[in-house]
Design brief:
The complex is a heterodimer of chains A (327) and B (316). Chain A is built from ten helices and twelve strands. Chain B contains nine helices and twelve strands. In chain B, helix 3 crosses helix 4. The radius of gyration of chain B is 20 Å and the shape is globular. The chains are: A alpha/beta (327), B alpha/beta (316).
Chain lengths: 327, 316
């Protein structure tokens, strides 16, 4: 029987060197600082957090676009290392990437056909099959009639259509995993829905695993099963979508949910109870729990000194917070 | 007459492809101390409308006419020079979109925020800096930040500084163009909290421009929905978020994901109407599920209770 886990991360860290002194130690930005989880085949998860929390870096590290500073990334039983060119080339076929800014992601001087053909040429797929695949994938992302789009350049397409081309390119090698980094944040509300439902459809039809990176919690429930909340380089809480939204545990998650309005005329009379301050610097993160300087429940002598372990507080509900560690 | 009343406003730009109808026969009014949210998708003309109100227009303007009454005075009759001296910053100010990058990187934040006062000769340097200190405490910036440069401030703090600058001459109307769209969720909520307090305590009239319907509900007493350069619906917030009237507003509301409830999201088929030579009749007709024959002629503005809607469905 095939293993149900597609991707495993074990204590993955990605630190960037900012400054190297002649003497003394170099300074690091700890963008991703110890992330572990297992992603099940065909499952879609949301990686949620504010800007600078490390979610994009984590996505890029998972894709092998950045080399992890330490820790292990295991995909389909193989360990992924950038230095291992053979495994990496195989890995590229298994993964697809959808970026935030569709226009920036598409080369302006290439036609849609050429953009989609490129990965197929690199992976030595013969000419006849190339055309067939391009037709199939464009139909799947609903850029039809296909002939109308093949010879267009990116600037001739609307934002939503550009994003469909980016998705088609990510799909064209039949990947098992897609990382979608804020795929809809630059689109208007109505176009956003089209793209989200397209991703959902593709995920269901092909049983692709998706890591959906977003700052917008309200879009997560539309096609992902899990929410992972990231803060200052760490995943601090993860659970199934419904459970996390109905019953958040970590004080940061609670604040995050409280900050998001649903349209309601009474909102204007309500002051939201939000912790002041801003996420910490990743160069010199706070000791202990990274949220403790902003946390109203902090236990001095504990939260500011020791890092909280991840505990399974409830079935399939993991949290890293001292409030939930039984003594 | 209302405190701020806009009547039959037009703003057309000259472009290589033809005349662009950015604001095309727009009328609305706002009471003193009220907040009006202008919502719509990108390219619907909402930022152009804001630029009319503060008269910061690009050079390719071909048509700019109509009436903007503030306290009964028609601002459209003022010369550019008079508008600059008497209205901009003093009566109407604006927090521009991309405000995060609007500060001069080589001037200390405190001095920049004081600039409108100094340029208008309304205060001495000391008085101006004293006023900045007051404004900073109002918008929640530590006083020490006056001596800092923009790059030393976080996005949220820079946005607060821009809001302080917009408030520094005690204007009656403040236009906020996408004030929180580049900010994180918690920072956004903190800034909306601050704006709510300012509205409550100082009675400032806000015009909030946003593409985010949820954010609009954080401040708005009234909501105007723009589509294709026109206001297609103007409703009280209490009515709008419960049941909007115009088919476009309804579709827009149906496309907003909800955090707390399961809801089937809808999208609007087709793409937004071009503002260059827009079609005759209702501009939303091509995408509207209720399209009728009548829709090929321009729909009238119909009053229903306290709402206005530009749609034939409601014509008797």
């Amino acid at each position: 029987m095939e293993n149900s886990v597609l991707l495993s991360l074990r204590n993955v860290k990605k630190w960037y060197v900012v400054r190297k002194g002649i003497f003394g130690k170099p300074t690091y930005v700890r963008a991703v600082d110890g992330v572990s989880f297992d992603l099940v085949r065909g499952e879609a998860i949301s990686l949620v957090g504010e800007s600078g929390c490390g979610k994009t870096t984590l996505g890029r590290t998972i894709l092998g676009l950045e080399e992890a500073t330490s820790g292990k990334i295991i995909f389909d039983g193989k360990e992924i290392r950038i230095s291992d060119k053979e495994v990496l080339k195989w890995y590229r076929r298994q993964t697809g990437f959808v970026q935030q800014d569709p226009y920036g992601a598409l080369p302006p001087f290439m036609t849609v056909k050429r953009i989609l053909e490129e990965p197929l040429i690199i992976h030595k797929i013969d000419k006849y099959e190339r055309i067939e695949r391009i037709y199939r994938v464009l139909t799947e992302v609903k850029l039809t009639p296909v002939e109308d789009f093949l010879n267009k350049y990116p600037h001739m397409l609307s934002g939503g259509q550009q994003q469909r081309v980016v998705i088609a390119r990510a799909m064209i090698l039949n990947p098992k995993l897609i990382v979608a980094d804020e795929p809809v944040s630059m689109l208007d509300a109505s176009v956003r829905v089209e793209i989200l439902s397209l991703l959902k459809e593709l995920q269901r039809r092909h049983a692709i695993s998706i890591i959906y990176i977003t700052h917008d919690l309200s879009t997560t429930r539309y096609f992902t099963e899990w929410i992972y909340v990231m803060y200052a380089g760490k995943i601090i809480e993860r659970a199934r979508v419904e459970r996390l939204i109905k019953n958040p545990l970590h004080p940061y998650t609670i604040a995050l949910l409280r900050a998001i309005p649903d349209p309601d005329a009474n909102n204007r009379f309500i002051l939201r109870d939000i912790p002041p301050g801003e996420p910490p610097s990743l160069i010199d993160p706070p000791s202990g729990c990274r949220f403790h300087p902003r946390c109203i429940h902090k236990i001095l002598g504990l939260c500011d000194e020791k890092e909280p372990p991840e505990v399974e507080y409830d079935k399939e509900h993991f949290v890293s917070c001292w409030l939930y560690v039984s003594k | 007459m209302s405190f701020l009343e806009v009547k039959d406003l037009y703003l057309y730009y000259r472009t290589r492809k033809g005349m662009l109808h950015a604001v095309d026969d727009v009328s609305f009014s706002v009471g003193k101390g009220e907040a009006l949210a202008l919502i719509g998708e990108s390219g619907c003309g909402k930022s152009s409308l804001a630029r009319c109100l503060i008269r910061l227009l690009p050079r390719n303007v071909e048509v700019f006419n109509g009436h903007i009454y503030l306290n009964g005075t028609d601002l459209m009759r003022l010369s550019d020079e008079d508008f600059r001296k008497m209205i901009r910053w003093r009566k109407i100010s604006m927090v521009p979109q991309a405000a995060l990058n609007s500060l001069n990187p080589v001037i200390k934040v405190g001095e920049q925020v004081a600039e409108p006062l100094l340029i208008h000769g309304a205060a001495s340097r000391e008085e101006a800096l004293e006023k900045v200190r007051k404004m900073f405490s109002l918008v929640g910036i530590p006083e020490a930040f006056m001596e800092r440069y923009p790059f030393e401030l976080s996005g949220g703090m820079r946005q607060r500084a821009m809001i302080a600058m917009a408030l520094i001459m005690d204007p009656e109307v403040v236009i906020l163009d996408e004030p929180t769209s580049a900010l994180d969720v918690l920072t956004q909520a903190n800034i909306m909290n601050m704006l709510k307090k300012i509205k409550r305590e100082y009675g400032v009239t806000f015009i909030l421009i946003t593409h985010d319907v949820s954010v609009s509900s954080e401040l708005a007493d009234k909501v105007a929905v723009m589509y294709g350069g026109q206001i297609v619906e103007l409703s009280e917030a209490d009515d709008f978020y419960k049941a909007s009237l115009h088919p476009y507003s309804q579709k827009l509301m149906a496309s907003i994901p909800s955090l707390r409830e399961e809801k089937n999201l809808e999208y609007i088929p087709g793409s937004p109407v071009s503002l260059i030579n827009p079609p005759r009749g209702c501009r939303f007709a091509d995408r509207c599920p209720y399209r009728m024959e009548k829709c090929s002629s321009d729909p009238p503005l119909i009053t229903i209770n306290k709402s206005y809607v530009k749609c034939w469905l409601y014509a008797k």
